[in-house]
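Entry 12.
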Amino acid sequence: MRRAVAITLGALLGAAWAASAQPGFDTVQIRTTPIADGVYMLQGAGGNMGLSVGDDGAFLIDDQFAPLTDKIKAAIGEVTDAPVRFVLNTHWHGDHVGGNEHLGQAGAMIVAHQNVRKRLNPEEFGEVMGRTQQAPPAALPIVTFSDQVDLYWNGQKIHVFHVPHAHTDGDAIVYFTAANVFHMGDTFFNGRYPFIDTNSGGGINGVIHAANAVLAVANSASRLIPGHGALGTVDDLRAYRDMLVTVRDRIRLMINDGKSEDEVVAAHPTADLDDTWGAQPERFVRGVYQSLSR
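Predicted 3D structure (tokens):
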């Protein structure tokens, strides 16, 4: 387990802070989708981004990989001449925070849950990894919060709230209240099984809680930016939540019957769901098992 944790963290951090172009990044195109007045979804490689533009400047949610920063800035430049003034990280993984350093050096204020900053610092994982692999200082969040924070920007109230132990232990959901747009980060994989990072404090019950928290506020006109997948609706999120509950309950019964993780995987408890949700079912089942059994 110690070695597995080290490999996972090393891969995530390495992806985030690579300074030179990586294979395939030169062909990536940033796609911009208007959602509401002044609010957009940006897609490229890695986690989906959100963008608010207006008189106050650009407000960016997540920033993918470092080699894509110039392309992301160019895409933002197509809809506003204003600089990126804020970057909000929904969690700490490299495909969501890799552009922090470049944008931070350009003057953006980086905001995240306090656990994101902790997980990007060397002291947190130095012993596990056996070496120090730190996010550059310019990439670290300089404003953190523990539970929730409101920002008033570009004529919007932007309500940001923490959902504990979901995809990780530092997930934030961003709600543009006037625009009725949510960015859910990797608590929502639209149309596919999620990745639950149990090594970073994630858990299936937290992912279900995140979905329920948004469903309690959202309505049929809401638009949901997932961490991965297409722009979503409440119907998409409700179907996702129901799938999560079904798989969780199946695996919990098998754990109660004394089955090991490998036995649960071999029983293929998602077999009837894979045609619809089938991205990496074994990884998903293992994540659910680990989060329920620890």
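Annotation: Residues 4 and 199 are 9 Å apart (CA to CA). The chain is about 35% helix and 20% strand.
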